[in-house]
Amino acid sequence: MNKKLTLLALTWPIFLEQLLHTIVLNIDIFMLSHYSDNAVAAVGVAGQILMVANILFGFVNVGLSILISQLIGAGKEREASNIASIALGLNMLIGVVVSLGLVVLAEPLLRLMNLPPELMGYGQSFLTIVGMGTFSVAIISTADTVLRMYGYVRQMLVLSVTVVVLNIIGNYLALFGPLGLPVLGVEGVAMATNISRFAGIGIAVYMLLKVVRVSLKSKALFSFPKNVVNQMLTIGVPSAGENMSYQASQVVITYMVTLLGTTALTTKIYTQSITTFVFLFSIAIGQATSIMVGRLIGAERSGEAYGVAFRNLRTGLLITFGTGCLLAVFSDPLLGLFTDNEEVIALGGLLMLLSLVLEAARACNVIVIGSLNAAGDVKFPVVVGLISMWAISLPLAYVFAIVLDMGITGIWLAFIADEWLRGLLMIFRWRSRKWQSIRLSLVRDG
Question: How many CA atoms lie within 13 A of 356 on its CB side?
């Protein structure tokens, strides 16, 4: 295990895995862009709702990841395996409830997002079909968390590759109708997403049984001992709550963008589809740092954990800024892959320049918050996130974009203010070392 605990060894498979997840969404958008710009806008809005729904599984997965990393660091791998089984069963139940909710509430949720009437058909079809299979995300994401925290990042990558390849093949068959097959449009893309995920469930189950040797018997999955569930959710709810707060604020932002018109909405979706590739480096380094910090704290080596977080942060800032510069330079041809609308390309290019400043702050947040969470310091990030996102980001977005008529550019400026405030506060928190006094009972007491 120790041989795997280097930033490079952990980061590159995690980065590729995250890249593949992003490619799924971008492949949907890219392929749909050759089908209909309206379909792209509708699927983008529906995708925001699905992202918020998927975060519900983080209530369990974040707590699971912190407990597993510290337990393995403390040499308690059997206890870690037991907790993995419990988390999988809990998320399976949550996944079924979420799937039912998305199917029943698809149209009201899209209306709440102010989706234009001409886009409602596309949006409702996509949200209903993909929502129906959302329980599969619960299973795959939990398996993904277990494999990652055990250090089986290459196996995790195999799981993602399979899902992505199947999704791309399904999209091609649905949108381009080769060999005389019917063109199914948005509905076909949604069905391809579900089919690829169902295949992923089979691979996830195999890897949990054969690689990690997690018990999948009903007694292990659905026992839900109170002390384990309580500690998992005590850690996971506030920690995942910070992410949910962010995604919920993005839903409100998307609502504001719909007020600016279809051009602004389309520009936002295309620009974020491209700049997401910068963010992926932050996510990969943040997750690798979380594994490293959690193992070190579980082994009672908090001094080393302190230095690891800052070293990895410096690396993350350098990589994200360099990648952002590259994308900004080639913004026109990149945006041209999605659209030939000159207004969208020009506006998207400006947003990509602003994203150089934005993504550096996001790197601070992702990497340092991951370190704080790994140490069990989960409340501070969510409190700061709630205040900053809802009291600073959203009001500023409204003032800049609507009141001052700066449009989508004003929203990006609000993003920058929010991310930098939170990023600096997270760095100050890590430097305070208050997280060193936190002790998790399941780790210390076994």
Answer: 14
